[in-house]
Write a structure and sequence with these properties.
Layout: H1 2-10, H2 12-21, H3 29-39, H4 41-61, E1 67-73, E2 93-102, H5 107-173, H6 179-213, H7 238-248, H8 250-272, E3 277-286, E4 295-303, H9 313-378, H10 384-419
Antiparallel strand pairs: 1-2, 2-3, 3-4
Length: 425
């Protein structure tokens, strides 16, 4: 998935142009994913972590600033001005001094290592956020395709009953059918019309939900997608999927990189426990008194803190405990991934078996019963109740079949997300 997401992120400009060109036509899954990755607000906010991490690297590379000190001593505050002749405390002195901290223990190198490791963690966390977004978009795309399939089914049923009502009205006018049969067919026609409205509402809701994932602020009522429900075979065993997930999941890689960052953090805190040297140099001018000439002098300085109390013990211990915490998180996530693979594979097997059973026998039976009952009703050999029951059974069967197809596709997308694989084209 990392390779796919990196190439997709690098092609955002081109994808935005492609989205603009195809905005008025149905969009494929690849086009929807490109727009979502380039415009999703949650993902845009996550990208700021990279720039923040880069700023921390810049800060870590900086060296300490030198300190400039300016001073005056034995200044005349009794007389007017600074007249040394009236200053009984001594001749006036002015001085300038520069001090610089010499960092020990490779503090700067360790700061840079921590900052760079943090940036690597941010990159992987961005990939993991993108992985979750891709799964949400794929599920939303599947839901919209399913809603469109159900709308088409509901409209086909309504059209069939529209024809039946038309025929029944003609038969009632000719005295060949009791009016109560016409009323029954009209009531059924109204029920199927309500089902069409409900199905159309689900299409609009699915469309809006998908556009929200795509980062659109204003929803387009004409937005549509094109494509088929995913139906390819899995082609991997449960053990292979688990191994792939443990090696390719960006969130697990992020924790492993965070473990490397914590090691760099420990080295930094150990370095912080070492005292730094401060060296300095300065010049001093002393004004003359009683006809004596003024004099200039230079000085050098060296200072070192005495590490009697604070040796950075607390931060060193914190860094060590943080390592233990990250290691526990890695083990916990590995167990969670194993469970996710187990559950997703079980969902896949169930969806596959259900879909195969429906395609093998149930669909053809429901279609055949409806056709035979419809033909018999038109000839007057079947009652309207039998026709309505056959139509409803067919609708429920087809809706169940559409749900099974969608669920099968969702499980494939879920397995791809769990194992860290990129979406298929």
């Amino acid at each position: 998935m990392r390779r796919f997401l990196s190439s997709l992120l690098a092609a955002l400009v081109g994808s935005q142009l492609l989205v603009a060109q195809t905005a008025a036509s149905p969009m494929t899954l690849e086009q929807v994913l490109a727009e979502a990755i380039s415009r999703n607000l949650r993902l845009l906010a996550e990208r700021f972590n990279l720039t923040i991490a880069e700023a921390r690297i810049i800060q870590a590379r900086l060296r300490p600033n030198p300190v400039l000190s300016l001073g005056g001593n034995y200044l005349d505050i009794v007389g007017s001005g600074f007249n040394p002749a009236t200053n009984a405390a001594g001749p006036t002195e002015v001085n300038a001094r520069v001090d610089y901290v010499l960092e020990r223990g490779k503090k700067r190198q360790e700061r840079i290592a921590v900052a760079e490791a943090s940036r690597a963690v941010s990159e992987l966390e961005l990939l993991n956020t993108t992985r979750n977004l891709v799964l949400e978009v794929q599920a939303g795309f599947t839901d919209l395709l399913l809603a469109k399939e159900n709308v088409a089914l509901a409209r086909a049923s309504l059209e069939a009953f529209d024809r039946i009502v038309t025929i029944n009205r003609t038969r009632v006018d000719s005295g060949d059918l009791a009016r109560v049969e016409l009323v029954r067919s009209e009531v059924a026609q109204l029920q199927f019309s309500n089902q069409v409205r409900q199905a159309e509402s689900r299409v609009r809701l699915s469309r809006n939900r998908l556009q929200a994932f795509m980062g659109r602020i204003r929803y387009d009522a004409a937005f549509d997608v094109t494509g088929d429900l995913r139906r390819d075979a899995l082609g991997a065993t449960k053990l292979e999927l688990a191994q792939l997930a443990l090696s390719a999941r960006p969130d697990l890689d992020a924790l492993r990189r965070d473990q490397a960052r914590s090691q760099a953090e420990l080295r930094l805190q150990l370095a912080q426990g070492k005292v730094d040297y401060t060296v300095g140099a300065g010049v001093n001018r002393q004004f003359g008194v009683g006809g004596l000439t003024s004099g200039n002098s230079v000085g050098v300085f060296f200072s070192i803190p005495l590490p009697i109390n604070n040796k950075n013990q607390g931060e060193i211990e914190r860094a060590r405990r943080e390592q233990d915490q990250i290691l526990a998180r890695i083990r916990s996530l590995e167990q969670e991934i194993q469970a996710e693979v187990e559950n997703a594979y079980e969902q896949y097997e169930t969806a596959k078996q259900l879909l195969e059973r429906m395609e093998a026998d149930l669909l053809e039976r429901a279609r055949r019963v409806r056709e035979v009952t419809d033909f018999s009703y038109r000839r007057g050999e079947a009652t309207f109740v039998e026709l309505l029951d056959a139509q409803r059974t067919y609708n429920e069967t087809m809706q169940g079949y559409n749900e099974a197809r969608a669920e099968y596709g969702r499980t494939l997308f879920l397995i791809d997300a769990i194992t860290g694989k990129g979406p298929r084209k």
